[in-house]
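During the reporting period the student researcher (J.K.) took over the structure-prediction task from the postdoctoral fellow and processed the backlog of single-chain submissions. One of the processed entries is reproduced below for the supervisory committee.
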Amino acid sequence: MERYKSGSQRARVSTEPWGEANLYCPACDSPKINSLPTGTHAVDFSCPTCTSRYQLKSSASKFGNRVIDGAYAAMHRAITADQTPNMFFLHYRLPQLTVESVLLIPRFAFSLSCVEKRPPLSPTARRAGYVGCYFVLDRIPPDARIPIVQNARPVSASQVRKAYNKIRSLETIEVEKRGWTLDVLNVVRSIGKEQFMLRDVYDRADSLAKLHPNNRHVDDKIRQQLQVLRDLGLLTFLSPGSYRLL
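J.K. obtained the following structure tokens:
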């Protein structure tokens, strides 16, 4: 860091070493993750025990609802091929160079619904026509937004792994079907009630229709995905049309 004067440069060269020294694998009991060689595409760390892959995104500003990522086409391919890494979102403070928060989103929580195209760069830009993307974080279920550090204090590793394992059953769903499951889970969480009715989900069918414009049977899909969430152990049926989150 001594070679750099600006706070942003110093933070850029220190966040990855910080991650290797302090982060661990939420997917298994490994107390560390290893940095990968510079230039490794889209991945910064790998677990030496279970080989889970991680990418670290860092910012001196708090992450908003939209987080800038790389090329839309590349992210689209990664999601459809089920090759998205787990992602850490690290917010640090300048000039103190302290870690304020770290958020983990498991790799199986990313779907095409949470990726939004950015406008293409202008014809006069150096990378004319390039189309980037945003991650839209509120389209990811709250269950899958797992805090590692909150308010500059670490969350216990056991608590993090418990939260990760709670939703790990989503990983068993085929990737082309997983998007609907995630979107319906997110809608169910948005209701804000532990016990809810089928009509509560139907009331939010328009938001699901916007995410899946080619599907003309949204109500049918909702009922199907509630059964999937039941089978995954994330909710239970109480009576016809009545459910409870677990």
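The committee noted the following: The chain has seven helices and 13 strands.
J.K. will present the remaining backlog at the next meeting.
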